[in-house]
């Protein structure tokens, strides 16, 4: 295996190659297929879908992946257009079988609460890409990527492919134990165009979007610039959530040489958090319990009482004489309501792709990319009171102590990489060889900033903080990734039989050091994950023009991540030293098989699957999330999963389409959690996996006729456990969304104007949305739940010029 310097040399070489091509070409080129997919494995929309997607009408609700040897479905831009503008592309795919999507806001964009899982694998065990560029595991803490809601404006997403079990062999991910979700950006228009739109709705929601397309400037050169803005009040409590985004893309058709493309995306997201709940808080205070960001004196009072109670329990003097030891009426614990919390993220993501047609049979696609991130997550906490003399925001000392402190987790990421994919295609055979290199430097710090004991707060959670009075830890983490893949697809018997097989391998090096002048309980050191042979094979057989059988098998390994808050370095130094020599990366083996059928307007697919998930890594949460204790990490055995998925798409007649999906998933732990001496710590053997609903049933009705459109969707999910011993769960729920709109055609000032009215949670269901926001515990109640959004209304206008 090459050392870090060798990896960086190769990475620099690939970047240099792309840069030379960019300089040599007159401009940048047409959007290329993802380098993670060989042409034979590229899922394509149904006939006519590309044209219909541009118009937003007349398209099947879901493309069911005919011609693929694995379970895969696609959602196009037309489907996103039916949702409230600004909705996350993840919200559009929640209707697909096997997809468990949770959010605590109507757009599915509030990142602390957003969770998505496939067939029992949670978000950080999946793979995500945008035009082939890796997005990491899209975790909240920005360890190795960024969330899709920051990577691109939803209006610029052309297609989303969901592979519930087996992602494409060359997907740039070392976390996809489960499936993959691949996003593809829209191509610039051939003709010049300006599009603008605005949305207003519940909780003072304002959303604006504008896009300018240059059209063909000559010689196949075209591009677009777009901007989006979102501002909304929280639906409960006090606070706002805001985001600025800008996307730019240019492409250049190089004729027989191929094409060249480039993009640059920017996002600045600032959001105040919702309060994490547990069942006890919900029973006492209801789902609308939240942070008390509009009442700083009350937050001070609660913190003083809690600290007085702790002093009494310890037999020491009460620090806040006069505050007493009794909480204000309606409050039972210090954790019932914190003052405020927030999340700030600023991202730049750019890339260049050269799609070279070397010969009629041979093509080479190479992408270089770079991502820069700055982030901050904050809690104003009663667990870290401010001492007298601590620095204020302007650097001056704070005269008196305060029972509250401003605690942050601060992030900075600089990661760059390159992907290259060589494809040789003949009439019956497609051979693919490719590789991916990435170097990621990630710094993460835990700092404390002074708060005042005053009538109003002296710091704002929507601003990056200055002048800390304490740094608990400040770590520098690096991850160097090298991955390759080899695959072959053979088509036989007049294309009735398709066989594909191949493998991938990776080597990932993780390092952690603590920066000078800090002391930390967290681990430093080096650990690696390596597996050069992870096989994958599939078969597709067409029984008839309308019917096909498919089956596939794959093995995947998940590399470790480098972070202070997750992965091997998130434990103590003693804990890391104890596990480093025996820790194994997580591994999965997935087998699935199914049938697809279509005749006229009716399409259906059915699949069954089995998953053996081994070397499961478990980090036990220790105490309330706001305290920030190190996790306890260990390999704790296996999970065995089996299930089935059915999807049906029926165009009753041209204007009316129906879609329905059903998923059955049984994910059970196959081992107990044992101590180093073999004693049973947690008897998990036979228990259901957390956050894995056994049943999900989704349906959607879409009517489109003469500019008129209407949609109603329903989503049922059975109960979910949030403890490993299954003694705590949240009940099942049914959610209903709807929209209705009209697009004006013909001549006149209204030509091209569209209006859309939409409502989320139509029945105003009261429910628990996200579970696991602060991790999972073995048993008992845990402050790790987030309430779902009540009914929300929105009206949107859009106009193209």
TrEMBL record:
Major place of residence: membrane
Signal peptide residues on this chain, from the entry's feature table: 1-29
Bilayer disposition of the protein: Multi-pass membrane protein
Domain TonB-dependent receptor plug: 70-179
Highest taxon in the source lineage: Bacteria
Domain TonB-dependent receptor-like beta-barrel span(s) in chain numbering: 319-762
Pfam families referenced in this protein's UniProt entry, alphabetically: Plug, TonB_dep_Rec_b-barrel
Gene Ontology molecular function: any one: siderophore uptake transmembrane transporter activity
Keyword terms of this UniProt record: Cell outer membrane, Ion transport, Iron, Iron transport, Membrane, Receptor, Signal, TonB box, Transmembrane, Transmembrane beta strand, Transport
Record keyword Ion transport present: yes
GO CC entries: cell outer membrane
Family: Belongs to the TonB-dependent receptor family.
Protein name from the UniProt record: Iron complex outermembrane receptor protein
């Amino acid at each position: 295996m090459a050392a870090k310097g060798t990896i960086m040399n190769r990475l620099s070489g690939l970047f240099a190659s792309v840069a030379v091509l960019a300089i040599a070409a007159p401009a940048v080129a047409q959007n290329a297929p993802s380098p993670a997919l060989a042409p034979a494995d590229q899922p394509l929309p149904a006939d006519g879908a590309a044209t219909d997607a541009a118009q937003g009408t007349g398209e099947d609700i879901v493309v069911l992946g005919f011609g693929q040897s694995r379970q895969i479905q696609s959602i196009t831009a037309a489907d996103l257009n039916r949702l409230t503008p600004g909705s996350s592309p993840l919200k559009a795919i929640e209707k697909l079988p096997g997809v468990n999507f949770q959010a605590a806001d109507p757009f599915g964009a509030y990142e602390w609460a957003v969770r998505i899982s496939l067939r029992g694998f949670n978000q950080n065990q999946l793979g995500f890409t945008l035009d082939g560029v890796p997005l990491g595991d899209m975790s909240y803490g920005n360890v190795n990527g960024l969330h899709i809601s920051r990577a691109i404006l939803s209006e610029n997403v052309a297609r989303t492919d969901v592979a519930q079990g087996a992602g494409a062999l060359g997907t740039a991910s070392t976390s996809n134990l489960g499936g993959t979700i691949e996003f593809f950006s829209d191509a610039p228009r051939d003709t010049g165009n300006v599009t603008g739109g605005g949305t207003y709705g519940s909780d003072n929601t304002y959303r604006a979007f504008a896009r300018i397309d240059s059209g063909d400037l000559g010689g196949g050169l075209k591009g677009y610039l777009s901007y989006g803005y979102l501002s909304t009040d929280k639906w409960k409590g006090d606070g706002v959530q805001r985001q600025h985004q800008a996307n730019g893309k240019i492409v250049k058709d190089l004729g027989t040489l191929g094409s060249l493309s480039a993009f640059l995306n920017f996002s600045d997201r600032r959001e105040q958090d919702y309060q994490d709940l547990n069942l006890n808080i919900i029973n006492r205070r209801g789902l609308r319990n939240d942070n008390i960001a509009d009442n700083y004196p009350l937050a001070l009072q609660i913190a003083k009482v809690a600290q007085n109670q702790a002093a009494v329990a310890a037999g020491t003097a009460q620090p806040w004489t006069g505050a007493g030891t009794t909480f204000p009426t309606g409050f039972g614990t210090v954790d019932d309501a914190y003052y405020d919390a927030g999340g700030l993220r600023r991202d730049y993501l750019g890339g260049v792709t050269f799609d070279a047609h070397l010969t009629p049979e041979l093509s080479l696609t190479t992408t270089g990319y770079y991502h820069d991130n700055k982030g901050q997550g904050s809690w104003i906490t009663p667990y870290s009171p401010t001492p007298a003399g601590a620095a204020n925001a302007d650097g001056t000392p704070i005269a008196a102590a305060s029972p509250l402190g401003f605690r942050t987790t601060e992030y900075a990421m600089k990661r760059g990489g390159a992907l290259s994919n060589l494809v040789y295609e003949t009439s019956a055979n497609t051979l693919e060889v490719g590789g991916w290199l990435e170097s990621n430097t990630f710094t993460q710090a835990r700092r404390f900033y002074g708060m005042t004991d005053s009538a109003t707060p002296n710091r704002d959670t929507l601003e990056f903080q200055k002048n800390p009075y304490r740094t608990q830890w400040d770590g520098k983490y690096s991850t160097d990734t090298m991955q390759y893949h080899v695959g072959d697809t053979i088509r036989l018997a007049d294309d009735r039989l398709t066989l594909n097989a191949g493998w991938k391998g990776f080597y990932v090096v993780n390092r952690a050091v603590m920066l000078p002048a800090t002391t930390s309980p967290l681990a430093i050191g080096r650990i690696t994950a390596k597996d050069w042979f992870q096989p994958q094979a599939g078969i597709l057989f067409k029984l008839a023009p309308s019917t096909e059988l498919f089956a596939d098998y794959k093995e995947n390994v998940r590399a470790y991540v480098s972070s202070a808050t997750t992965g091997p370095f998130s434990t103590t130094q003693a804990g890391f030293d104890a596990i480093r020599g025996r820790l194994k990366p997580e591994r999965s083996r997935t087998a699935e098989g199914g049938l697809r059928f279509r005749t006229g307007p009716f399409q259906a697919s059915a699949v069954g699957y089995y998953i053996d998930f081994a070397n499961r890594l478990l980090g036990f949460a220790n105490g309330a999330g706001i305290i920030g204790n190190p996790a306890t990490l260990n390999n704790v055995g296996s999970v065995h999963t089996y299930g089935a998925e059915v999807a049906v798409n029926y165009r009753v007649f041209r204007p009316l389409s129906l879609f329905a999906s059903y998923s059955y998933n049984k994910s059970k732990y196959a081992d107990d959690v044992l101590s180093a001496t073999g004693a049973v710590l947690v008897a998990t053997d036979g228990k259901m996996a957390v956050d894995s609903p056994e049943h999900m049933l989704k349906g959607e009705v879409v009517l489109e006729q003469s500019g008129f459109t209407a949609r109603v969707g329903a989503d049922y999910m059975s109960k979910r456990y949030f403890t490993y011993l299954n003694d705590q769960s949240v009940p099942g729920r049914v959610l209903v969304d709807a929209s209705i709109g009209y697009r004006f055609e013909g001549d006149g000032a209204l030509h091209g104007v569209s209006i859309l009215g939409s409502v989320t949670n139509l029945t105003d269901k009261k429910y628990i949305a996200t579970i696991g926001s602060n991790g999972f515990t073995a048993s008992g109640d845990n402050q790790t739940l987030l309430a779902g959004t009540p009914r929300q209304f929105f009206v949107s206008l859009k106009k193209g010029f």
